Amino acid sequence: METSAMDQRIVEFISKHHLLTLTTSASNQPWAASCFYAWSDTEQVFIITSDLSTRHGGEASLNPIVAGTIAWETKLIGRIQGIQFTGRMTACEGKSFDFAKKTYLKRFPIARLMETHLWLIKPVYIKMTHNQLGFGTKLIWERPPTS
Predict the structure, then answer these.
(1) Domain 8-142 grouped into CATH 2.40.50.140
(2) Tally of helices (H runs) and strands (E runs) in the chain
C-alpha cells in the first residue's frame, strides 16, 4: 500500500489518544459512536472493534464512507488540538484481520478476553486544528488517490 508522508504532529496526536468519535449514515440519517482505536502508522489506518449488530457496524456494512473526530479537551483556547477525518471503513478478513488483530491487541491486551470483529478505517482526508502553532492553525493531509 503506497502512503504519503503524514505530518509528524498529526501522527503524534493520533498515537497519544485511543478514543475516536465515528460517524456513519444510512437512509440519510447520521449516527455517532465512540470507539477505542489502535493506529497503524505504517498503513495509516485506524483499527476498531465493533459487532455487526451495532448501529455503526451495520451502517458501515451498507455505506463504508465514514467521518470522525479525535479531540483533546481543554478550556485553554491556545492549547486546543484535534482532528477531523473522512475515510472508508471495511471489515477485516484474511491477512488484514491478522494484521489488525496483532496491532489492536498490542494496544489493548484486554481485548484477548473477548471475541473481536475488527474493522479498518482508512482515512482519505485529515484536518488537524493545532492552536499551539497559532490560533486557528490547520494541518491537512490527503491520501493519494492510488493508495
Answers:
(1) no
(2) 3, 8
